[in-house]
Predict the structure.
Amino acid sequence: MLPITAPACAPVGVLLVHGLGGTEFDLGAVYKALRQTGVDTHTLTLPGHGLQPEDLLGITAEDWVEAVSATYRELLPRYRTLHLVGMCLGALLVIEVAKREHHHNGNLVALAPPVFIDDWSMPWYRALRHLVYRLPGGLANRMRVVEAEPFGVKNARIRRMVCQQFAQNHPFHYGWIPLSCIRQVDRLRGWVKRSLADIRSPTLIIHSREDELTSLRSAELLVRRIGAQTARMDVLENSYHMICVDNDRHLVARKVLAHLGLGLAAQPVAEQACA
């Protein structure tokens, strides 16, 4: 009789989660750098994304969390180490999934996590959205939050390219999202703030000082509640919100690779049986 052996698994995998209204293009230089290391890199398209903004109507925060959790559970048995990396909405989602799935066999990276939506591009009446959510007649479904200058990008050349892509209806990012979708982000932000001390994976939070969407309060809260022994914050000085495509993109990629223990080229590692 042949001996029964456990299935072999790859050494390292990385799951990347994009931002609100976006695609894998949100991960920019980080996505490219990870692919160059040779590790298995996985992305998913969040529910309501990838086709047209109207598809976000009716999508809930539960749908996003379950989609990421399902992908995580599918990948987990295939890798000795599985890292989680998220940008913007994706950062909130990998944090929440790490808590719910008791993630411990890989590191966690949160890029520009909008725990608070509170920085300089936000209009003074932003808090009134919570009143609109409660109005009858589905007004929040009909109201649009339109992408506008500076599009999260400080670099003028890249910002011009983003404008051109929006003008050409390039599918890299939605040009608007329904206000009801922001309500779901607000619900997710509330969940993320709870039980952060349950996170046990080494966590890196990268945030720009000039982020126009979310202030450094977001990163500071995460470090404080996860704990300084587990989480650390790196602050960028030359980007807005879209840090993976802006001026500091290569610096961000290097910081992420270092946190995940990956060099510019992954060294081959012998396969071993999955636990």
